[in-house]
User: What shape does this take?
Amino acid sequence: MHYSIVAADPAAHLFAVTLQIAAPAAVGQIVALPAWIPGSYMIREFARHIVQIRGESNGRTIPLKKLDKHSWQAAPCDGPLTLHYQVYAWDLSVRAAHLDQTHGFFNGTSVFLRVVGHENASHVVDIQRPQGAEYDQWRIATALPTLRAGRGAVGTYVAANYDELIDHPVEMGTFQLATFKAHGVPHEIAITGNVPNLDMVRLSADLKKICETQIAFFEPAGSKFARQAPMQRYVFLTLAVGDGYGGLEHRASTALICARADLPVKGQPECSDGYRTFLGLCSHEYFHTWNVKRIKPAAFAPYDLQVENYTSLLWLFEGFTSYYDDLMLFRCGLIDQAEYLKLVTKTINGVLLGSGRGKQSVAESSFDAWVKYYRQDENAPNAIVSYYTKGSLVALALDLTIRSETKNKKSLDDVMRVLWQKYGRDFYATNDTAGRGVTEAAVEALFDAVTGLKLKRFFDRYVRGTDDLPLEKLLASAGVTIADERKAVKPGLGARTTRGGAECKLLNVYEGGAAHRAGLSAGDVLMALDGVRVTANLDVIFGRYRVGDTVTVHAFRRDELLIFSVKLLADTTPQLGLNAMQGPDTAVATRNAWLAGRHSR
Ligand code: ZN
Assistant: This one.
């Protein structure tokens, strides 16, 4: 398969793609574009952005028949088949494709048609920048292996199969670039966007710490594979915008979107919350290089890119990755113990906020990700649980359970390493990945085998069930207390409202709260409380009221003014705080071992 992709018309946001198929199927070659992109579990129907497609063979037009919303079949032809098509690229996210005068970005799932039946052949791609002198400075950043280096933003790349082809997003433009080595492996970070005085030196140094810590986590010193990274090269593709946050993992790269303000400024050495968040995102996506890009659920080995792929294991692949992303920041020295505990506190409070956690387990949340977690509406806090945040608490609880039951001889780290050795290390050894994924049953059996414990009850209650994790007891075993840090009982509405701006809109109404009981609904815009205009000043207004007071609320629902009598209830927003204790010695020793990833003999 030979593709060429040209950033043909930046102003119209069009990539032009040519696909040459040397030996099309005799009955008529079928081609299809994926319906989703691995790592983002939602049907997106990328083929809807194909604007025009035509076929030719030996100079003759070959008719194409549309088979379904993703697929075409070419009429039978004698010689090689060439398809020409354009892709509209105007999605400023890490999941699709984007092209304008400032840069081009694409995922293979948005632009490369799959040649059905030839998925395991090698796939060659020529990538070209737009025509014109104004694009002379454009370069390409991608982890796709190079076949031939081109001049400027022209290059030829090769992938061993279609799965590899679509697992290397491509950025083109005038990005800022830095390189570093992590345990000998070249890493690049490309930052696209207008970011003055960006401290690339600091960014590289900090990322290097994260990467080396993770490489050594999965392949510790002292073995045949000591400090061996799973990839030859790695690229952080980053788009900096005014406001944005997100990332998508790939086998040798990640596509990130962040707020410009989160990136470090030259001459300002402090670590802002925003920069810590960005480093946490990098750490998260990098951890996926092992956990989900190589250790994979059986349902993803291989992916079926046309339909939903159901797995109930995302609590492990996303939740555990969320647990380790911040822990790795501590282990590589970028944050201290107090800062780490603050991040855990935030997760605990976030999970406790929604009553949905009592209705959906993390296993169910994972299975239904396609229609629930990825398609959240205003009722989400009352209906679902996040396999990211609760999944990370499952990881924390398992880590502390294993450490306390084995007297620090074993930990979750050991389980991750055995998962890696058994399922991940050789995942891409050959084209055929069928049978290399891990099943739900195998995960649990592996936990018991590695730790010597019987953890079925834990999985029943906290993974398949909806019980809250016993964190108070477990954290106490590591010398960490949980306490309610609420200073006083304050009245609350039991709703999340818009922040800033001139109006106060209810975004979520929490089940059982004052707003819910009074009949207010998500989407309602509060106009006045006891005759006083409400804007973004709700906290100030509540300052004059007590729990139990009844107030009159005027609110617009769509364009109709409604009046509610609201009895104010105590604000139940969780405000737990975690604190490290000075003793007893065994608990402090456990905490130090846990945070540092050390074990007792
Ligand atoms: Zn993730």
